[in-house]
Amino acid sequence: MKIFSAAQIREADAYTIRHEPISSLQLMERAAGACAQWLYGHFDASRPCYIFCGMGNNGGDGLVIARLLQDKGYQATACVLHHSSKASADHQANREALERQYPQSLYDIHAVTDFPELPAGSIIVDAIFGTGLSRPIEGWMTGIVHKLNDLQARHTVIAIDLPSGLLADASSVLMPVVHAHHTLSFEVYKLALLMPENAARTGQVYILSIGLHPAYLTQTPARFHVTDAAMMRTIYQPRQPFAHKGTFGHALLVAGSYGKMGAAVLSAQACLHAGVGLLTCHVPQCGYLVMQISAPCAMCITDPQEAYSAHFHEGLSPAEAVKYKTIGIGPGLGTATATAKALELLLEQYQQPVVIDADALNIMAAYPFLLSRIPPGSLLTPHPKEFERIFGSTRNDFERLERLSQQATQLQLYILLKGRYTAIACPDGAVYFNATGNPGMATGGSGDVLTGILTALLAQGYAPKAAVLLGAYLHGLAGDIAAARLSQEAMTAETIIDCLGPAFLQL
Ligand SMILES: NC(=O)C1=CN([C@@H]2O[C@H](COP(=O)(O)OP(=O)(O)OC[C@H]3O[C@@H](n4cnc5c(N)ncnc54)[C@H](O)[C@@H]3O)[C@@H](O)[C@H]2O)[C@@H](O)CC1
Ligand SMILES: Nc1ncnc2c1ncn2[C@@H]1O[C@H](COP(=O)(O)OP(=O)(O)O)[C@@H](O)[C@H]1O
Ligand SMILES: [K+]
Fold first, then answer.
1. Which of 177, 184, 392, 445 could form a disulfide with 165 if both were Cys (CB 3.0 to 4.6 A apart)?
2. Is the peptide bond before 21 cis (omega within 30 degrees of 0)?
3. Are residues 288 and 322 in the same domain?
Protein backbone atom coordinates (compact mmCIF):
# COMPACT_ATOMS: atom_id res chain seq x y z
CA MET A 1 0.00 0.00 0.00
CA LYS A 2 1.31 3.42 -0.95
CA ILE A 3 1.60 6.22 1.58
CA PHE A 4 0.43 9.53 0.18
CA SER A 5 1.20 13.05 1.34
CA ALA A 6 -1.60 15.43 2.33
CA ALA A 7 -1.25 17.11 -1.10
CA GLN A 8 -1.56 13.76 -2.91
CA ILE A 9 -4.63 12.88 -0.84
CA ARG A 10 -6.27 16.13 -1.91
CA GLU A 11 -5.45 15.19 -5.52
CA ALA A 12 -6.88 11.70 -5.00
CA ASP A 13 -10.13 13.22 -3.66
CA ALA A 14 -10.32 15.61 -6.62
CA TYR A 15 -9.47 12.84 -9.11
CA THR A 16 -12.19 10.61 -7.67
CA ILE A 17 -14.73 13.44 -7.82
CA ARG A 18 -13.87 14.08 -11.51
CA HIS A 19 -13.50 10.52 -12.76
CA GLU A 20 -15.92 8.33 -10.81
CA PRO A 21 -17.71 10.77 -11.02
CA ILE A 22 -19.12 11.65 -7.62
CA SER A 23 -19.86 14.95 -5.91
CA SER A 24 -17.61 16.01 -3.05
CA LEU A 25 -20.68 15.94 -0.79
CA GLN A 26 -21.33 12.30 -1.73
CA LEU A 27 -17.68 11.43 -1.14
CA MET A 28 -17.92 12.99 2.31
CA GLU A 29 -21.09 10.96 2.96
CA ARG A 30 -19.18 7.80 1.97
CA ALA A 31 -16.18 8.63 4.18
CA ALA A 32 -18.37 9.45 7.16
CA GLY A 33 -20.47 6.35 6.44
CA ALA A 34 -17.37 4.17 6.77
CA CYS A 35 -16.64 5.77 10.17
CA ALA A 36 -20.25 5.37 11.31
CA GLN A 37 -20.15 1.68 10.36
CA TRP A 38 -17.00 1.28 12.44
CA LEU A 39 -18.67 3.05 15.38
CA TYR A 40 -21.83 0.89 15.20
CA GLY A 41 -19.59 -2.20 15.27
CA HIS A 42 -17.61 -1.07 18.31
CA PHE A 43 -20.07 0.79 20.58
CA ASP A 44 -23.76 0.37 21.26
CA ALA A 45 -26.29 3.19 21.33
CA SER A 46 -26.24 3.42 25.13
CA ARG A 47 -23.07 5.53 25.02
CA PRO A 48 -23.60 9.25 24.38
CA CYS A 49 -21.46 10.51 21.49
CA TYR A 50 -19.90 13.97 21.30
CA ILE A 51 -18.51 14.79 17.88
CA PHE A 52 -16.15 17.77 17.92
CA CYS A 53 -16.20 19.35 14.47
CA GLY A 54 -13.84 21.89 12.90
CA MET A 55 -14.93 24.33 10.20
CA GLY A 56 -13.30 22.43 7.29
CA ASN A 57 -14.13 19.13 5.64
CA ASN A 58 -12.90 17.06 8.59
CA GLY A 59 -15.62 18.84 10.56
CA GLY A 60 -17.96 18.12 7.64
CA ASP A 61 -17.27 14.40 8.14
CA GLY A 62 -18.10 14.87 11.82
CA LEU A 63 -21.46 16.50 11.03
CA VAL A 64 -22.39 13.58 8.77
CA ILE A 65 -21.26 11.08 11.44
CA ALA A 66 -23.55 12.84 13.96
CA ARG A 67 -26.52 12.55 11.58
CA LEU A 68 -25.82 8.89 10.77
CA LEU A 69 -25.49 8.02 14.46
CA GLN A 70 -28.79 9.79 15.18
CA ASP A 71 -30.40 7.80 12.35
CA LYS A 72 -29.43 4.62 14.24
CA GLY A 73 -30.81 5.85 17.54
CA TYR A 74 -27.55 7.03 19.13
CA GLN A 75 -27.57 10.23 21.23
CA ALA A 76 -25.09 12.19 19.12
CA THR A 77 -24.17 15.82 19.63
CA ALA A 78 -22.13 17.71 17.02
CA CYS A 79 -20.06 20.32 18.88
CA VAL A 80 -19.00 22.81 16.22
CA LEU A 81 -15.82 24.70 17.02
CA HIS A 82 -15.91 28.17 15.44
CA HIS A 83 -12.15 28.57 15.04
CA SER A 84 -12.76 30.39 11.77
CA SER A 85 -15.64 32.60 10.61
CA LYS A 86 -15.88 30.70 7.34
CA ALA A 87 -16.93 27.07 6.98
CA SER A 88 -16.07 24.91 3.95
CA ALA A 89 -18.98 24.47 1.52
CA ASP A 90 -19.47 20.80 2.41
CA HIS A 91 -19.29 21.56 6.13
CA GLN A 92 -22.00 24.19 5.68
CA ALA A 93 -24.21 21.85 3.61
CA ASN A 94 -23.96 19.12 6.23
CA ARG A 95 -24.59 21.55 9.05
CA GLU A 96 -27.82 22.52 7.34
CA ALA A 97 -28.74 18.86 6.79
CA LEU A 98 -28.22 18.10 10.48
CA GLU A 99 -30.11 21.23 11.52
CA ARG A 100 -33.08 20.18 9.38
CA GLN A 101 -33.22 16.63 10.73
CA TYR A 102 -31.88 16.85 14.27
CA PRO A 103 -31.72 20.50 15.34
CA GLN A 104 -31.29 19.56 19.01
CA SER A 105 -28.03 17.78 18.24
CA LEU A 106 -26.08 20.91 17.20
CA TYR A 107 -24.04 22.70 19.83
CA ASP A 108 -21.81 25.68 18.94
CA ILE A 109 -18.55 26.44 20.70
CA HIS A 110 -16.94 29.87 20.39
CA ALA A 111 -14.61 29.73 23.40
CA VAL A 112 -13.15 27.19 25.83
CA THR A 113 -15.81 28.23 28.36
CA ASP A 114 -18.48 26.80 26.03
CA PHE A 115 -16.99 23.30 26.41
CA PRO A 116 -19.86 20.94 27.34
CA GLU A 117 -20.09 18.72 30.43
CA LEU A 118 -19.72 15.13 29.20
CA PRO A 119 -21.53 12.28 30.99
CA ALA A 120 -19.37 9.35 32.12
CA GLY A 121 -18.56 6.80 29.44
CA SER A 122 -19.09 9.17 26.52
CA ILE A 123 -17.59 8.54 23.12
CA ILE A 124 -15.62 11.54 21.88
CA VAL A 125 -15.16 11.81 18.13
CA ASP A 126 -12.38 14.16 17.05
CA ALA A 127 -13.33 15.64 13.68
CA ILE A 128 -11.66 19.00 14.19
CA PHE A 129 -8.74 18.95 11.73
CA GLY A 130 -7.62 16.31 9.25
CA THR A 131 -5.19 16.43 6.38
CA GLY A 132 -5.95 20.12 5.79
CA LEU A 133 -4.05 21.22 8.89
CA SER A 134 -1.31 23.53 7.67
CA ARG A 135 0.14 24.92 10.89
CA PRO A 136 0.11 24.16 14.60
CA ILE A 137 -3.16 24.66 16.47
CA GLU A 138 -3.05 27.96 18.33
CA GLY A 139 -5.13 30.38 20.36
CA TRP A 140 -8.20 29.19 22.26
CA MET A 141 -8.30 25.97 20.22
CA THR A 142 -5.20 24.89 22.17
CA GLY A 143 -7.38 24.98 25.28
CA ILE A 144 -9.91 22.71 23.55
CA VAL A 145 -7.18 20.17 22.76
CA HIS A 146 -6.03 20.26 26.41
CA LYS A 147 -9.63 19.77 27.59
CA LEU A 148 -10.06 16.77 25.30
CA ASN A 149 -6.75 15.29 26.43
CA ASP A 150 -7.73 15.73 30.10
CA LEU A 151 -10.89 13.74 29.34
CA GLN A 152 -9.03 10.96 27.53
CA ALA A 153 -8.59 8.86 30.68
CA ARG A 154 -12.37 8.71 31.31
CA HIS A 155 -13.81 8.59 27.78
CA THR A 156 -13.03 6.82 24.53
CA VAL A 157 -11.56 9.15 21.93
CA ILE A 158 -11.78 8.33 18.23
CA ALA A 159 -9.97 10.54 15.73
CA ILE A 160 -11.28 10.89 12.20
CA ASP A 161 -8.58 10.71 9.51
CA LEU A 162 -5.87 12.11 11.82
CA PRO A 163 -5.78 13.13 15.48
CA SER A 164 -6.36 16.88 15.29
CA GLY A 165 -3.16 18.89 15.43
CA LEU A 166 -1.08 16.15 13.82
CA LEU A 167 0.62 17.17 10.58
CA ALA A 168 0.42 14.36 8.03
CA ASP A 169 3.92 14.73 6.59
CA ALA A 170 6.05 16.48 9.19
CA SER A 171 6.91 16.22 12.84
CA SER A 172 4.39 17.58 15.35
CA VAL A 173 6.45 16.96 18.51
CA LEU A 174 5.71 19.58 21.17
CA MET A 175 2.61 20.75 19.27
CA PRO A 176 -0.89 20.51 20.78
CA VAL A 177 -2.43 17.32 19.36
CA VAL A 178 -5.53 15.35 20.40
CA HIS A 179 -4.67 12.02 22.03
CA ALA A 180 -6.91 9.36 20.54
CA HIS A 181 -7.48 5.74 21.52
CA HIS A 182 -8.37 4.87 17.93
CA THR A 183 -7.71 6.65 14.64
CA LEU A 184 -9.94 5.92 11.64
CA SER A 185 -7.90 7.08 8.68
CA PHE A 186 -9.11 7.19 5.09
CA GLU A 187 -7.89 4.90 2.32
CA VAL A 188 -4.13 5.06 2.96
CA TYR A 189 -1.65 5.44 5.81
CA LYS A 190 -0.23 8.90 6.37
CA LEU A 191 3.45 9.05 7.35
CA ALA A 192 2.64 10.60 10.74
CA LEU A 193 0.62 7.52 11.72
CA LEU A 194 3.72 5.29 11.44
CA MET A 195 6.09 7.35 13.56
CA PRO A 196 6.88 6.16 17.10
CA GLU A 197 6.79 9.77 18.33
CA ASN A 198 3.04 9.82 17.57
CA ALA A 199 2.12 6.50 19.20
CA ALA A 200 0.37 8.15 22.17
CA ARG A 201 -1.63 10.40 19.84
CA THR A 202 -2.91 7.92 17.26
CA GLY A 203 -3.67 4.89 19.43
CA GLN A 204 -4.74 1.93 17.31
CA VAL A 205 -4.91 2.89 13.63
CA TYR A 206 -7.57 1.54 11.26
CA ILE A 207 -7.45 2.27 7.53
CA LEU A 208 -10.99 2.54 6.16
CA SER A 209 -11.59 2.35 2.44
CA ILE A 210 -13.69 5.24 1.10
CA GLY A 211 -13.46 4.13 -2.52
CA LEU A 212 -10.94 6.67 -3.82
CA HIS A 213 -10.38 6.08 -7.52
CA PRO A 214 -8.18 2.96 -8.12
CA ALA A 215 -6.55 4.57 -11.17
CA TYR A 216 -5.17 7.39 -9.04
CA LEU A 217 -3.95 4.95 -6.39
CA THR A 218 -2.11 2.71 -8.87
CA GLN A 219 -0.74 5.39 -11.22
CA THR A 220 0.56 7.89 -8.70
CA PRO A 221 4.16 7.23 -7.70
CA ALA A 222 4.95 7.16 -3.99
CA ARG A 223 8.25 7.13 -2.16
CA PHE A 224 6.82 5.56 0.99
CA HIS A 225 4.92 2.26 1.19
CA VAL A 226 3.46 -0.14 3.73
CA THR A 227 4.10 -3.77 2.76
CA ASP A 228 1.23 -6.25 2.81
CA ALA A 229 0.30 -9.85 2.10
CA ALA A 230 -0.43 -9.14 -1.58
CA MET A 231 3.07 -7.76 -2.10
CA MET A 232 4.59 -10.78 -0.34
CA ARG A 233 2.77 -13.16 -2.65
CA THR A 234 4.55 -11.50 -5.59
CA ILE A 235 7.95 -11.84 -3.88
CA TYR A 236 7.72 -15.37 -2.46
CA GLN A 237 9.17 -18.08 -4.68
CA PRO A 238 7.83 -21.60 -4.07
CA ARG A 239 10.42 -24.36 -4.33
CA GLN A 240 10.84 -26.19 -7.61
CA PRO A 241 10.31 -29.99 -7.61
CA PHE A 242 13.85 -30.84 -8.79
CA ALA A 243 15.57 -28.50 -6.35
CA HIS A 244 18.40 -29.83 -4.17
CA LYS A 245 20.13 -28.35 -1.18
CA GLY A 246 22.68 -26.62 -3.40
CA THR A 247 19.82 -24.67 -4.94
CA PHE A 248 19.15 -22.91 -1.68
CA GLY A 249 22.62 -21.69 -0.98
CA HIS A 250 25.28 -22.15 1.64
CA ALA A 251 25.31 -19.40 4.27
CA LEU A 252 28.00 -18.54 6.77
CA LEU A 253 26.89 -17.21 10.13
CA VAL A 254 29.50 -15.41 12.22
CA ALA A 255 28.03 -15.01 15.67
CA GLY A 256 28.42 -15.67 19.38
CA SER A 257 30.94 -15.06 22.12
CA TYR A 258 31.28 -16.20 25.73
CA GLY A 259 27.94 -15.55 27.48
CA LYS A 260 26.18 -14.69 24.22
CA MET A 261 26.00 -18.01 22.44
CA GLY A 262 22.22 -17.86 22.69
CA ALA A 263 22.16 -15.09 20.09
CA ALA A 264 24.18 -17.26 17.72
CA VAL A 265 21.92 -20.28 18.28
CA LEU A 266 18.75 -18.23 17.72
CA SER A 267 20.14 -16.82 14.46
CA ALA A 268 21.24 -20.25 13.30
CA GLN A 269 17.89 -21.89 14.09
CA ALA A 270 15.99 -19.06 12.39
CA CYS A 271 18.21 -19.39 9.33
CA LEU A 272 17.55 -23.14 9.18
CA HIS A 273 13.79 -22.63 9.64
CA ALA A 274 13.72 -20.01 6.90
CA GLY A 275 14.91 -22.37 4.20
CA VAL A 276 18.69 -22.09 3.89
CA GLY A 277 20.28 -24.97 1.90
CA LEU A 278 23.37 -25.34 4.08
CA LEU A 279 24.53 -23.41 7.09
CA THR A 280 27.99 -23.14 8.57
CA CYS A 281 28.41 -21.30 11.86
CA HIS A 282 31.71 -19.75 12.85
CA VAL A 283 31.89 -19.59 16.66
CA PRO A 284 34.60 -19.26 19.33
CA GLN A 285 35.90 -22.41 21.04
CA CYS A 286 33.50 -21.96 23.94
CA GLY A 287 30.58 -22.12 21.54
CA TYR A 288 31.37 -25.39 19.80
CA LEU A 289 29.31 -27.79 21.89
CA VAL A 290 26.59 -25.25 22.44
CA MET A 291 26.07 -24.83 18.71
CA GLN A 292 26.50 -28.50 17.76
CA ILE A 293 23.98 -29.61 20.35
CA SER A 294 21.46 -26.78 19.87
CA ALA A 295 21.58 -26.63 16.07
CA PRO A 296 22.57 -30.08 14.80
CA CYS A 297 21.40 -29.22 11.27
CA ALA A 298 24.20 -26.63 10.99
CA MET A 299 27.90 -27.27 10.49
CA CYS A 300 30.25 -25.63 12.91
CA ILE A 301 33.76 -24.27 12.62
CA THR A 302 35.59 -22.87 15.59
CA ASP A 303 37.82 -19.88 15.96
CA PRO A 304 41.25 -20.36 17.57
CA GLN A 305 40.08 -17.92 20.25
CA GLU A 306 38.30 -19.31 23.30
CA ALA A 307 35.80 -16.60 24.16
CA TYR A 308 35.25 -14.56 20.99
CA SER A 309 35.93 -14.84 17.28
CA ALA A 310 38.82 -13.04 15.59
CA HIS A 311 39.78 -15.26 12.65
CA PHE A 312 36.59 -15.65 10.67
CA HIS A 313 38.12 -13.88 7.66
CA GLU A 314 40.75 -16.61 7.30
CA GLY A 315 38.50 -19.15 5.66
CA LEU A 316 37.50 -16.58 3.06
CA SER A 317 40.25 -16.74 0.48
CA PRO A 318 38.76 -15.99 -2.95
CA ALA A 319 38.45 -19.72 -3.64
CA GLU A 320 36.76 -20.37 -0.28
CA ALA A 321 34.56 -17.28 -0.31
CA VAL A 322 32.65 -18.32 -3.43
CA LYS A 323 31.15 -21.30 -1.67
CA TYR A 324 29.19 -18.99 0.62
CA LYS A 325 26.21 -17.37 -1.04
CA THR A 326 26.04 -14.85 1.81
CA ILE A 327 27.25 -14.15 5.34
CA GLY A 328 25.21 -13.12 8.37
CA ILE A 329 27.37 -11.42 10.93
CA GLY A 330 26.89 -9.85 14.33
CA PRO A 331 24.53 -11.53 16.81
CA GLY A 332 26.33 -11.96 20.13
CA LEU A 333 29.67 -11.41 18.36
CA GLY A 334 31.21 -8.98 20.88
CA THR A 335 33.21 -5.92 19.94
CA ALA A 336 36.78 -6.97 20.83
CA THR A 337 39.42 -5.08 18.85
CA ALA A 338 40.56 -8.33 17.23
CA THR A 339 36.94 -9.04 16.17
CA ALA A 340 36.72 -5.59 14.60
CA LYS A 341 39.97 -6.23 12.70
CA ALA A 342 38.64 -9.56 11.44
CA LEU A 343 35.45 -7.81 10.26
CA GLU A 344 37.56 -5.27 8.38
CA LEU A 345 39.46 -8.10 6.65
CA LEU A 346 36.25 -10.02 5.93
CA LEU A 347 34.85 -6.95 4.15
CA GLU A 348 38.01 -6.76 2.03
CA GLN A 349 37.65 -10.37 0.95
CA TYR A 350 33.93 -10.86 0.53
CA GLN A 351 32.10 -8.84 -2.14
CA GLN A 352 28.53 -10.17 -2.15
CA PRO A 353 25.62 -8.75 -0.13
CA VAL A 354 25.80 -9.71 3.56
CA VAL A 355 23.61 -9.17 6.64
CA ILE A 356 25.11 -6.94 9.31
CA ASP A 357 23.49 -6.82 12.75
CA ALA A 358 24.04 -6.23 16.47
CA ASP A 359 27.73 -6.17 17.48
CA ALA A 360 28.85 -5.95 13.85
CA LEU A 361 26.84 -2.70 13.78
CA ASN A 362 28.41 -1.58 17.04
CA ILE A 363 31.82 -2.18 15.46
CA MET A 364 30.71 0.04 12.54
CA ALA A 365 29.82 2.74 15.05
CA ALA A 366 33.29 2.53 16.58
CA TYR A 367 35.07 2.40 13.19
CA PRO A 368 32.85 4.39 10.80
CA PHE A 369 35.30 4.02 7.89
CA LEU A 370 34.10 0.40 7.64
CA LEU A 371 30.65 1.52 6.49
CA SER A 372 31.84 2.40 3.00
CA ARG A 373 33.46 -1.05 2.70
CA ILE A 374 30.23 -3.01 3.12
CA PRO A 375 29.35 -4.73 -0.17
CA PRO A 376 26.63 -2.77 -2.02
CA GLY A 377 23.19 -4.30 -1.64
CA SER A 378 23.93 -5.58 1.88
CA LEU A 379 21.31 -5.50 4.64
CA LEU A 380 21.88 -3.57 7.88
CA THR A 381 19.42 -4.19 10.71
CA PRO A 382 19.89 -1.61 13.48
CA HIS A 383 17.47 -1.02 16.32
CA PRO A 384 17.03 2.68 17.13
CA LYS A 385 19.95 2.76 19.58
CA GLU A 386 22.32 1.06 17.14
CA PHE A 387 21.12 3.43 14.42
CA GLU A 388 21.89 6.42 16.59
CA ARG A 389 25.34 5.09 17.47
CA ILE A 390 26.24 4.78 13.78
CA PHE A 391 24.39 7.65 12.13
CA GLY A 392 23.98 10.14 15.00
CA SER A 393 20.98 11.49 16.88
CA THR A 394 18.11 13.43 15.33
CA ARG A 395 15.56 15.89 16.68
CA ASN A 396 12.51 13.85 15.71
CA ASP A 397 11.38 10.74 13.84
CA PHE A 398 10.86 12.52 10.52
CA GLU A 399 14.44 13.76 10.59
CA ARG A 400 15.60 10.25 11.50
CA LEU A 401 13.65 8.81 8.57
CA GLU A 402 15.35 11.26 6.19
CA ARG A 403 18.76 10.37 7.62
CA LEU A 404 17.96 6.67 7.21
CA SER A 405 16.96 7.10 3.60
CA GLN A 406 19.87 9.38 2.74
CA GLN A 407 22.38 6.89 4.24
CA ALA A 408 20.82 3.98 2.36
CA THR A 409 21.21 5.92 -0.88
CA GLN A 410 24.71 7.15 -0.17
CA LEU A 411 26.03 3.76 0.95
CA GLN A 412 23.91 1.76 -1.55
CA LEU A 413 22.65 -0.45 1.26
CA TYR A 414 19.27 -1.60 2.56
CA ILE A 415 18.95 -0.25 6.08
CA LEU A 416 16.17 -1.71 8.21
CA LEU A 417 15.36 0.41 11.26
CA LYS A 418 13.51 -1.82 13.72
CA GLY A 419 10.37 -0.82 15.56
CA ARG A 420 6.58 -1.20 15.64
CA TYR A 421 6.61 -0.25 11.97
CA THR A 422 10.08 -1.30 10.90
CA ALA A 423 11.28 1.15 8.23
CA ILE A 424 13.26 -0.37 5.36
CA ALA A 425 15.21 2.22 3.37
CA CYS A 426 16.37 1.23 -0.10
CA PRO A 427 19.29 2.55 -2.15
CA ASP A 428 16.87 4.10 -4.67
CA GLY A 429 15.30 6.35 -2.00
CA ALA A 430 12.12 4.31 -1.46
CA VAL A 431 11.13 3.40 2.10
CA TYR A 432 8.90 0.46 3.02
CA PHE A 433 7.22 0.11 6.41
CA ASN A 434 6.50 -3.35 7.75
CA ALA A 435 3.19 -3.62 9.60
CA THR A 436 3.38 -7.18 10.93
CA GLY A 437 4.64 -7.81 14.47
CA ASN A 438 3.56 -6.90 17.98
CA PRO A 439 4.99 -5.80 21.34
CA GLY A 440 5.46 -9.45 22.32
CA MET A 441 8.51 -9.28 20.05
CA ALA A 442 10.11 -6.70 22.32
CA THR A 443 12.06 -9.49 24.00
CA GLY A 444 15.74 -10.44 23.93
CA GLY A 445 16.75 -12.40 20.84
CA SER A 446 13.99 -11.43 18.42
CA GLY A 447 16.44 -9.33 16.42
CA ASP A 448 18.81 -12.31 16.19
CA VAL A 449 15.96 -14.30 14.68
CA LEU A 450 15.49 -11.62 12.01
CA THR A 451 19.19 -11.84 11.09
CA GLY A 452 18.87 -15.58 10.60
CA ILE A 453 15.80 -15.19 8.39
CA LEU A 454 17.40 -12.51 6.20
CA THR A 455 20.58 -14.59 5.83
CA ALA A 456 18.51 -17.60 4.76
CA LEU A 457 16.57 -15.61 2.15
CA LEU A 458 19.73 -14.11 0.62
CA ALA A 459 21.28 -17.60 0.55
CA GLN A 460 18.26 -18.90 -1.35
CA GLY A 461 18.86 -16.39 -4.11
CA TYR A 462 16.27 -13.74 -3.25
CA ALA A 463 17.51 -10.33 -4.43
CA PRO A 464 18.42 -8.09 -1.46
CA LYS A 465 15.27 -5.97 -1.73
CA ALA A 466 13.02 -9.04 -1.95
CA ALA A 467 14.87 -10.66 0.96
CA VAL A 468 14.60 -7.68 3.28
CA LEU A 469 10.90 -7.01 2.56
CA LEU A 470 9.88 -10.67 2.80
CA GLY A 471 12.14 -11.32 5.80
CA ALA A 472 10.76 -8.43 7.86
CA TYR A 473 7.19 -9.44 6.96
CA LEU A 474 7.69 -13.13 7.85
CA HIS A 475 9.46 -12.25 11.10
CA GLY A 476 6.54 -10.07 12.22
CA LEU A 477 3.95 -12.57 11.00
CA ALA A 478 5.65 -15.40 12.92
CA GLY A 479 5.61 -13.08 15.95
CA ASP A 480 1.88 -12.46 15.48
CA ILE A 481 1.18 -16.19 15.24
CA ALA A 482 3.30 -16.79 18.37
CA ALA A 483 1.38 -14.08 20.26
CA ALA A 484 -1.97 -15.54 19.19
CA ARG A 485 -0.92 -18.99 20.40
CA LEU A 486 0.86 -18.09 23.60
CA SER A 487 0.19 -14.40 24.47
CA GLN A 488 2.52 -11.49 23.93
CA GLU A 489 3.91 -11.99 27.42
CA ALA A 490 4.77 -15.67 27.23
CA MET A 491 6.21 -15.75 23.72
CA THR A 492 9.99 -15.70 23.32
CA ALA A 493 12.39 -15.40 20.42
CA GLU A 494 12.41 -19.21 20.27
CA THR A 495 8.65 -19.32 19.78
CA ILE A 496 9.00 -16.85 16.89
CA ILE A 497 11.26 -19.45 15.23
CA ASP A 498 8.69 -22.19 15.95
CA CYS A 499 6.06 -20.09 14.19
CA LEU A 500 8.08 -19.45 11.03
CA GLY A 501 6.56 -22.60 9.52
CA PRO A 502 2.95 -21.42 9.95
CA ALA A 503 4.03 -17.99 8.70
CA PHE A 504 5.38 -19.46 5.44
CA LEU A 505 2.15 -21.44 5.10
CA GLN A 506 0.13 -18.20 5.28
CA LEU A 507 2.01 -16.57 2.40
N1 LIG B 1 -13.74 15.65 -0.83
C2 LIG B 1 -12.80 15.70 0.04
O3 LIG B 1 -11.87 16.49 -0.08
C4 LIG B 1 -12.88 14.82 1.24
C5 LIG B 1 -12.33 15.24 2.44
N6 LIG B 1 -12.50 14.54 3.55
C7 LIG B 1 -12.13 15.09 4.86
O8 LIG B 1 -11.60 16.38 4.71
C9 LIG B 1 -10.42 16.52 5.47
C10 LIG B 1 -9.60 17.61 4.86
O11 LIG B 1 -10.44 18.75 4.87
P12 LIG B 1 -9.95 20.25 4.72
O13 LIG B 1 -8.97 20.31 3.61
O14 LIG B 1 -11.16 21.08 4.63
O15 LIG B 1 -9.16 20.56 6.01
P16 LIG B 1 -9.44 20.16 7.54
O17 LIG B 1 -10.88 20.00 7.82
O18 LIG B 1 -8.51 19.09 7.87
O19 LIG B 1 -8.98 21.43 8.36
C20 LIG B 1 -8.39 22.48 7.81
C21 LIG B 1 -9.29 23.71 7.89
O22 LIG B 1 -8.90 24.49 8.96
C23 LIG B 1 -8.05 25.56 8.55
N24 LIG B 1 -6.82 25.39 9.30
C25 LIG B 1 -5.72 24.68 8.96
N26 LIG B 1 -4.83 24.68 9.97
C27 LIG B 1 -5.42 25.38 10.98
C28 LIG B 1 -5.01 25.72 12.29
N29 LIG B 1 -3.84 25.35 12.77
N30 LIG B 1 -5.85 26.44 13.06
C31 LIG B 1 -7.04 26.83 12.60
N32 LIG B 1 -7.48 26.54 11.36
C33 LIG B 1 -6.67 25.83 10.57
C34 LIG B 1 -7.87 25.41 7.06
O35 LIG B 1 -7.85 26.68 6.46
C36 LIG B 1 -9.12 24.58 6.70
O37 LIG B 1 -10.24 25.38 6.60
C38 LIG B 1 -9.83 15.14 5.49
O39 LIG B 1 -8.94 14.95 6.58
C40 LIG B 1 -11.06 14.29 5.59
O41 LIG B 1 -11.46 14.20 6.95
C42 LIG B 1 -13.37 13.38 3.54
O43 LIG B 1 -14.65 13.87 3.73
C44 LIG B 1 -13.27 12.63 2.27
C45 LIG B 1 -13.58 13.52 1.11
N1 LIG C 1 6.11 -3.18 19.64
C2 LIG C 1 6.59 -3.90 18.61
N3 LIG C 1 5.81 -4.13 17.54
C4 LIG C 1 6.30 -4.83 16.49
N5 LIG C 1 7.56 -5.35 16.42
C6 LIG C 1 8.37 -5.15 17.46
C7 LIG C 1 7.94 -4.43 18.60
N8 LIG C 1 8.97 -4.38 19.47
C9 LIG C 1 10.01 -5.05 18.90
N10 LIG C 1 9.65 -5.52 17.68
C11 LIG C 1 10.51 -6.26 16.74
O12 LIG C 1 11.35 -7.17 17.45
C13 LIG C 1 12.69 -7.11 16.97
C14 LIG C 1 13.62 -6.70 18.12
O15 LIG C 1 14.93 -6.60 17.66
P16 LIG C 1 16.16 -6.17 18.57
O17 LIG C 1 15.84 -4.92 19.31
O18 LIG C 1 17.38 -6.19 17.73
O19 LIG C 1 16.17 -7.38 19.59
P20 LIG C 1 17.39 -8.20 20.20
O21 LIG C 1 18.58 -7.28 20.19
O22 LIG C 1 16.95 -8.55 21.57
O23 LIG C 1 17.56 -9.39 19.34
C24 LIG C 1 12.69 -6.14 15.80
O25 LIG C 1 12.57 -6.81 14.59
C26 LIG C 1 11.46 -5.27 16.06
O27 LIG C 1 10.92 -4.73 14.88
K1 LIG D 1 -9.41 14.71 13.24
1. 177
2. yes
3. yes
